[in-house]
Design a protein that fits this description.
Blueprint (H helix, E strand, L loop, with lengths): L33 E6 L3 H13 L6 E5 L27 H7 L11 E4 L4 E4 L2 H10 L18 H16 L1 H6 L4 H22 L12 H17 L14 H11 L10 H11 L53
Parallel strand pairs: 1-2
Antiparallel strand pairs: 1-3, 3-4
Helix pairs in contact: 1-3, 1-7, 4-6, 4-7, 6-8, 7-8
Length: 330
Amino acid sequence: MSADGSEYVRDQRYLTTRITADGRDGFPVEPGRYRLVVSRACPWANRSVIVRRLLGLEPVLSLGICGPTHDERSWTFDLDPGGRDPVLKIERLQEAFFARDPDYPLGITVPAIVDIPTGKVVTNDFAQITLDLSTEWRGHHRPGAPDLYPERHRDEIDAINADVYADVNNAVYEAGFAKGQDAYERAYRKLFRRLDILQERLAARRYLVGDAITEADIRLFTTLVRFDAVYHGHFKCNRSKLAEMPVLWAYARDLFQTPGFGDTIDFPQIKEHYYVVHRDVNPTGVVPLGPDTSGWLTPHGRERLGGRPFGDGTPPGPVADGEAVTAVTG
């Protein structure tokens, strides 16, 4: 919170140990050694799931999926038989953080990558995780994997990511968790000012940078796909629904219908997380039945702008066994 307690400030202290090709932090890239732990509900974790799928890393980096809700202690593996992750053999993600540091003082967050042999979390630095999957894990990408962080565009991608993080990804939380009117209105105005800028940018181009999907599109998508389901009502970001912003709505549908995006989205889990966990915002814990999600599958018309979704690469294959999500419904 801010000094007067009215403004939400995200704690950005994470375990920043990196898994790299050369193992300079003590954790070299090794097939089968690590487990990516996520929740379908979390937008920060959703990024890593999309990148893993687009790059075809499923055979070398396994996926542990926590349930959509958690208490003050930790995310839990309540979706697994017996409420225990079948690989890590733990009930709470907290156990992997405490295995690394028994006095771990920070948040138990997803995504987190766990070293399977030791059961210790290596990193929960969500922004670096996806970049490292694109660069440090390159030797294990599938044939035809897209380049999501091309060197020639990195400065532009980084600049857009910084603006999108501050004004969109995090601003919805600043609005939703504001404890005062002024703090809420600052976040609200910042959010919609940036969404208007993004609409203008995307009116004549299919993707944010270059002519193919990059890390920048993935980071924006995971907020947009949650917008009407939770941020518009639950977080009071209600100037416009995404479906009322024509360019962004078409852009988001284009991505949703691209393999690797919509097939990672579970709307029931997303809604359950926000409306059940955030009791300070939604004291009753009642989860809304709407909105109708079938619109995500309607034609978007973005093909007319050209572009190649996967650049010189190809689409990912079918969703891995055990990783399918709940289909969109009316």
